[in-house]
Amino acid sequence: MESGAGKHWTEEEVKALLSVWSEKNIRKQLHGTLRNKGIFIYIAKRLQELGVCRDWKQCRAKYKNLKYEYRTVKYAHNSGDVTKTMKFFHDLDAILRYEPVTQLAAEENGRCSATETRLNTSPTTDSAQ
């Protein structure tokens, strides 16, 4: 972790991050957005209002780490290994459960392409990316 190395997130800080992350508009903006610096700047400001002083890079790194750990535990559970756990699994499950899953679809010529089911897509948003 580049910024904030050596400074661990407290349980209260993680709970605050999860509460901001669980908001519908934040979830929608984070899903499928590659250039998300602005979203994490907003999240860092919201966390400051809640008394958590973290910069946007720290928020982004924690978001990515939590998401990775969640998916690792979820995969283990789906494979039958229920011994693998994490502290905020149920909170993350409630947040990430509704994300559209990217699936590989076989095309006619035998190649595979990633397809994604997205809700509320507008032509202006897709062409801007």
Automatic annotation (TrEMBL):
| Highest taxon, organism lineage | Eukaryota
Pfam families from the UniProt entry: Myb_DNA-bind_4
Q: Which Gene3D superfamilies match?
A: Homeodomain-like (1.10.10.60)
Q: Map out region (Disordered) in residue numbers.
A: 107-129
InterPro entries registered for this protein in UniProt:
Myb_DNA-bind_4
This chain's protein is named ZSC20 protein
Q: Where is the composition biased (Polar residues)?
A: 112-129
Q: Where is the Myb/SANT-like DNA-binding domain?
A: 7-95
